[in-house]
Design goal:
The protein is mainly β. The chain is about 0% helix and about 35% strand. Strands 2, 5, 6, 7 and 8 form a five-stranded mixed β-sheet that branches.
Protein backbone atom coordinates (compact mmCIF):
# COMPACT_ATOMS: atom_id res chain seq x y z
CA UNK A 1 0.00 0.00 0.00
CA UNK A 2 1.44 3.35 -1.04
CA UNK A 3 1.62 5.98 1.65
CA UNK A 4 0.42 9.53 1.12
CA UNK A 5 3.64 10.92 2.58
CA UNK A 6 7.06 10.00 1.28
CA UNK A 7 10.24 11.13 2.98
CA UNK A 8 12.00 10.92 -0.38
CA UNK A 9 9.82 13.41 -2.24
CA UNK A 10 10.48 17.12 -1.78
CA UNK A 11 7.81 19.22 -0.04
CA UNK A 12 5.56 21.40 -2.18
CA UNK A 13 7.07 24.81 -2.85
CA UNK A 14 4.00 26.63 -4.18
CA UNK A 15 4.91 29.65 -2.06
CA UNK A 16 8.20 29.97 -3.96
CA UNK A 17 6.79 30.08 -7.50
CA UNK A 18 7.37 32.98 -9.91
CA UNK A 19 4.53 35.45 -10.48
CA UNK A 20 4.16 38.48 -12.78
CA UNK A 21 3.89 41.97 -11.26
CA UNK A 22 3.47 43.96 -14.51
CA UNK A 23 5.46 45.49 -17.33
CA UNK A 24 8.73 47.31 -16.70
CA UNK A 25 7.07 50.42 -18.18
CA UNK A 26 4.49 50.42 -15.34
CA UNK A 27 7.25 51.24 -12.81
CA UNK A 28 8.57 54.82 -12.76
CA UNK A 29 12.37 54.88 -12.79
CA UNK A 30 13.38 56.53 -9.53
CA UNK A 31 16.74 58.16 -10.15
CA UNK A 32 16.83 61.00 -7.65
CA UNK A 33 15.19 59.94 -4.39
CA UNK A 34 15.49 63.43 -2.86
CA UNK A 35 13.79 62.35 0.36
CA UNK A 36 10.44 61.37 -1.18
CA UNK A 37 8.92 58.03 -0.26
CA UNK A 38 8.56 55.24 -2.78
CA UNK A 39 4.76 55.30 -2.62
CA UNK A 40 4.45 58.91 -3.85
CA UNK A 41 3.11 59.55 -7.36
CA UNK A 42 5.69 60.02 -10.12
CA UNK A 43 5.63 60.49 -13.87
CA UNK A 44 5.79 57.18 -15.69
CA UNK A 45 6.39 56.15 -19.32
CA UNK A 46 3.09 55.88 -21.16
CA UNK A 47 1.09 57.05 -18.12
CA UNK A 48 0.40 60.42 -16.55
CA UNK A 49 1.55 59.39 -13.09
CA UNK A 50 1.91 56.24 -11.02
CA UNK A 51 3.07 55.31 -7.53
CA UNK A 52 6.83 54.79 -7.36
CA UNK A 53 6.30 51.22 -6.20
CA UNK A 54 3.83 48.35 -6.15
CA UNK A 55 3.04 46.21 -3.12
CA UNK A 56 1.73 42.65 -3.42
CA UNK A 57 0.32 40.35 -0.75
CA UNK A 58 1.89 36.93 -1.41
CA UNK A 59 0.67 34.06 0.80
CA UNK A 60 3.62 31.98 2.02
CA UNK A 61 1.85 28.76 1.02
CA UNK A 62 0.82 29.65 -2.57
CA UNK A 63 2.25 32.57 -4.54
CA UNK A 64 -0.31 32.02 -7.33
CA UNK A 65 -2.76 33.75 -4.96
CA UNK A 66 -0.68 36.99 -5.01
CA UNK A 67 -2.62 40.21 -5.45
CA UNK A 68 -1.72 43.89 -5.47
CA UNK A 69 -2.37 45.91 -2.31
CA UNK A 70 -3.10 49.57 -2.87
CA UNK A 71 -3.39 52.72 -0.79
CA UNK A 72 -3.96 52.64 2.96
CA UNK A 73 -4.83 48.93 2.94
CA UNK A 74 -1.07 48.30 3.27
CA UNK A 75 -1.30 49.56 6.86
CA UNK A 76 -4.61 47.96 7.88
CA UNK A 77 -3.52 44.46 8.82
CA UNK A 78 -0.02 44.39 10.32
CA UNK A 79 -0.12 40.58 10.43
CA UNK A 80 -0.23 40.50 6.62
CA UNK A 81 2.70 42.92 6.32
CA UNK A 82 5.08 39.97 6.61
CA UNK A 83 3.57 38.43 3.47
CA UNK A 84 3.98 41.58 1.36
CA UNK A 85 6.59 42.19 -1.32
CA UNK A 86 7.62 45.69 -2.41
CA UNK A 87 8.59 46.06 -6.09
CA UNK A 88 10.12 49.22 -7.55
CA UNK A 89 12.63 50.45 -10.14
CA UNK A 90 15.60 52.43 -8.86
CA UNK A 91 18.31 53.73 -11.20
CA UNK A 92 17.11 51.47 -14.02
CA UNK A 93 17.12 48.23 -11.97
CA UNK A 94 13.96 46.52 -10.70
CA UNK A 95 14.16 45.52 -7.02
CA UNK A 96 11.86 43.32 -4.95
CA UNK A 97 12.16 43.15 -1.15
CA UNK A 98 9.94 42.39 1.81
CA UNK A 99 7.68 45.36 2.52
CA UNK A 100 8.14 44.88 6.28
CA UNK A 101 11.12 46.51 7.98
CA UNK A 102 12.81 43.68 9.93
CA UNK A 103 13.65 46.09 12.76
CA UNK A 104 10.40 47.99 13.33
CA UNK A 105 7.72 46.15 11.25
CA UNK A 106 6.97 49.35 9.35
CA UNK A 107 6.06 49.34 5.61
CA UNK A 108 9.14 50.05 3.53
CA UNK A 109 6.86 51.33 0.75
CA UNK A 110 7.10 54.59 2.71
CA UNK A 111 10.91 54.31 2.65
CA UNK A 112 13.47 56.25 0.66
CA UNK A 113 15.89 54.55 -1.78
CA UNK A 114 19.49 55.78 -1.98
CA UNK A 115 22.91 54.94 -3.38
CA UNK A 116 25.46 53.35 -1.06
CA UNK A 117 28.68 55.23 -1.80
CA UNK A 118 32.25 55.27 -0.64
CA UNK A 119 34.30 58.33 -1.59
CA UNK A 120 31.89 59.11 -4.45
CA UNK A 121 31.93 55.59 -5.92
CA UNK A 122 28.53 53.88 -5.99
CA UNK A 123 28.90 50.44 -4.43
CA UNK A 124 25.26 49.37 -4.06
CA UNK A 125 21.74 50.66 -3.44
CA UNK A 126 19.76 50.78 -0.23
CA UNK A 127 16.45 51.74 1.33
CA UNK A 128 15.86 53.69 4.54
CA UNK A 129 12.93 52.92 6.83
CA UNK A 130 11.23 56.20 7.79
CA UNK A 131 10.17 55.00 11.24
CA UNK A 132 13.61 54.78 12.88
CA UNK A 133 16.00 55.66 10.03
CA UNK A 134 17.57 52.21 9.67
CA UNK A 135 18.90 51.34 6.22
CA UNK A 136 19.14 48.06 4.33
CA UNK A 137 21.18 47.01 1.28
CA UNK A 138 18.86 46.12 -1.63
CA UNK A 139 21.15 43.35 -2.90
CA UNK A 140 22.19 41.59 0.31
CA UNK A 141 19.46 42.71 2.73
CA UNK A 142 22.04 43.57 5.41
CA UNK A 143 21.20 46.36 7.83
CA UNK A 144 23.46 49.30 8.55
CA UNK A 145 23.22 48.50 12.28
CA UNK A 146 22.80 45.34 14.30
CA UNK A 147 22.14 41.93 12.80
CA UNK A 148 18.79 42.49 11.06
CA UNK A 149 18.32 41.28 7.50
CA UNK A 150 15.75 42.39 4.93
CA UNK A 151 14.27 39.66 2.74
CA UNK A 152 15.41 40.14 -0.86
CA UNK A 153 13.33 38.54 -3.64
CA UNK A 154 14.55 37.27 -7.02
CA UNK A 155 13.61 39.39 -10.05
CA UNK A 156 13.47 38.26 -13.67
CA UNK A 157 12.62 40.28 -16.78
CA UNK A 158 10.86 38.21 -19.44
CA UNK A 159 9.62 39.10 -22.91
CA UNK A 160 5.96 40.09 -22.95
CA UNK A 161 3.78 37.59 -24.88
CA UNK A 162 2.49 40.31 -27.23
CA UNK A 163 6.01 41.58 -28.07
CA UNK A 164 7.75 38.26 -28.76
CA UNK A 165 7.11 38.52 -32.49
CA UNK A 166 8.23 42.17 -32.69
CA UNK A 167 11.76 43.37 -32.15
CA UNK A 168 12.12 44.43 -28.52
CA UNK A 169 12.64 48.09 -27.73
CA UNK A 170 16.06 49.30 -26.61
CA UNK A 171 15.19 50.02 -22.97
CA UNK A 172 13.22 46.80 -22.44
CA UNK A 173 10.11 48.64 -21.20
CA UNK A 174 7.81 46.04 -22.79
CA UNK A 175 9.28 43.22 -20.74
CA UNK A 176 7.33 41.61 -17.90
CA UNK A 177 8.66 41.72 -14.34
CA UNK A 178 8.48 38.37 -12.54
CA UNK A 179 9.41 37.90 -8.87
CA UNK A 180 9.67 35.05 -6.37
CA UNK A 181 11.02 34.43 -2.90
CA UNK A 182 14.76 33.89 -2.91
CA UNK A 183 15.53 30.18 -2.92
CA UNK A 184 17.56 28.68 -0.10
CA UNK A 185 20.40 26.49 -1.20
CA UNK A 186 21.28 23.36 0.69
Amino acid sequence: MASLFSVFSPPSRKGDAWFCVGLVSSFPDITNSSSTSLSEQRSCAGQDSAPGCKVFHVPATDSSQAHQVEGDSIFLDEGNLKDQVLVFKYNGKVHAVNNRCPHSSYPLSEGIPFDIEDFGIILSAGITCPKHGWSFDLYTGKADRANYKLGVWEVQLRPSPDTRTRASDEKGDNQEVWVRRKQRMG
